[in-house]
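Work Package 3 (structural annotation) set out to generate three-dimensional models for the target panel prioritized at the project kickoff. During this period the team completed the workflow that converts sequence records into C-alpha cells, so that structures can be stored uniformly alongside our sequence database. As a representative example, we reproduce one entry of 450 residues exactly as it appears in the project archive.
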Amino acid sequence: MNNIAMGDAMFLLGEAPSRPAQVITLQLYRSPDGCDADEWVADYFQHLLSHEDLKPVFRRRPARTALSPSTLRWVEDEPVEIDHHVRHSALPGQGRVRELLEAVAVQHGVPLDRRRPLWEFHVFEGLEGGRFATAFKTHHAIADGMSLAKHVLGSLTEDPEVRGCIPPWAARPQAAERPTQQSPSISLAPVGRSVSVVRSLVHMSRDANSRVPFEAPPSPLNVKVGGARRFAGDQWPVERLKAVASAASCTVNDVGLAMTGGALRAYLDELGLLPDRSLIAMVPVSVRRPGEAIADGEGNAFGAMLCDLATAVDDPAARLGSIADQTRTAKQRFSSMSVAEVLAVSKLIMGGAVLSSFTGITALPRHPFNLIISNVPATNRPLYYNGARMTDIYPVSMISEAQAMNVTLTRYDDLMTFGIVGDRRALPHLQRMLVHLDEALTALEKAVLG
C-alpha cells in the first residue's frame, strides 16, 4: 500500500456526490474503409474486454486503514472486473454529436465507485456518419488532463495500416513495471517556508502583469454546483489562431484565452450578469520536466497562474495584449523556480478554491479565481486505432463548488477544440458560449489582422 500524495488526495477529500472530481477524454472515430461499421465496433468492444492486464494506476483504489484512518492509501484491487469498467452504449435519437455530448454530460455527473479502481471506458455506437465514440473517464486523483491524454494518445498510432494497438489502460507485455514515484506535492511545508516562495508571492502582488488570489469578483460562475452538467464543444482551424498570434507577437494559447474572455463577456452580458470587474482564470501549467521525480502518466503535476481575462474591456486587441503580458510574466517567473517551488506557490493560489470545496462556502466578496482554463495538447497529425481514424477529441474537465464552469482547449490535426463544462442550473444555454467564441475569434482577426 502507498500513501496518496497530498495533491491527489485533495480531489478525493473535497468531492461530494453532487460534485464528483473526475475528467473525461472524448474521442470520435471512423471505422476503417471497407468495414461494416456495426460489426467493427462490436469486434472492437470484445477486443477491449480481452485486455485485462492493466497498468498499475488503473488497478488501484483508495482506502483507509485501521491503523491510520485519517490517511488515504492506494491498494491493489484484485481481481479487476474489466466488464464493469468497459461499457457499450447506443446513442439515442439520430446519433448527432449534440446527443453524444449530452450523454457525456450525464456521465460526467455520475460519481465513480470508490470500491473499485477509479476509471470507466464508454463506447458509444450509432453516431452519425458511420462513426463511433469512446469516453475515458477517470478520477482526478489518478490523472490530470495531461496524463490522461498521454494514456489515450499513447494507445494510438500515426500509421493507418498498423494493427495490434491496445487500450489506454492496458499494460504492454514487454514493459517492466517500475515503482510509483511520489510527487513533490506530497510535502510542501518546508518549501512553503522557503524565501524564494515568499519572494515570488510578494513580487506577484507588486507586478502589474500578475494577479494574486482573491481579486476575482462574484459572478454566476462562483456558486454552489449540483450533479447535473452541461457540456458544449466546437472546433476552429488552428491556422486562424496562429495568424492572430503571429500578428500580435503572442502564443496560440494566448489567443485561446482571449477568445474565452471575449465569449464570457458576451455570454454573461446576454444573461444580464456581467460583473463590472474582469473575471480571473486559473490557468494550469504542466511541471512535468525530464528528470523530475514525478510518476509518468499518474497523479497531478501542474502549477497554477492567474490571468485577468479583461472581460470588462470592450477592445479585443487590448484584451489579447493584456493576456499576453500576463502569461509572458508568469512563464518567466516559473522558469526561474524549481518544480517544488512552483507547486508550493500554486497550492497557495488554489487554496481558496479548495476551501470552498471542503466548506461549501461560496458567498465571498472576492474569489480566488472565477474559472479554470486549461490547454491539453494532442498532436498535429491524424491518429488511428487499428485502422480506425480518430476524427475528433474533446476534453471534459471537472467543476467544483464555487467553480461552475471549466474550459479546456485541445489541439489535434490542425484544429483547436474548446470543451466547456458547466453546472446545468447555474449556467443556462451553455451552447451560446460556442457562438460567442466564434464571434470573439472573428473580432480578434478584425482588430489584429485588419
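The two ends are 60 Å apart (CA to CA).
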